[in-house]
Fold this sequence. Notes:
Elements: E1 2-9, H1 14-24, E2 28-33, E3 40-45, H2 49-60, E4 66-73
Antiparallel strand pairs: 1-3, 1-4, 2-3
Amino acid sequence: MRAYILIRAKPGTSEDVVRRIKEKVREVLLADSVYGRFDAIVVLDVPSFDRLNEIVYRVIASDPDIVHTETSLTLS
């Protein structure tokens, strides 16, 4: 299952957020800091919804520099 996680981070922290996610999550296909409405985009390829939940709640939501996330899953 592919998931796209759009992240808003505290000002000036997006590069650090991306680096930490890449270090902690083996399922990362792509993780970049970006300009625009969001500060970073992370693309994951996860084997199950349970693993996605674990990543979103234990790694991403626990990062003190992340303010908001939106997760989108592919249809197929």
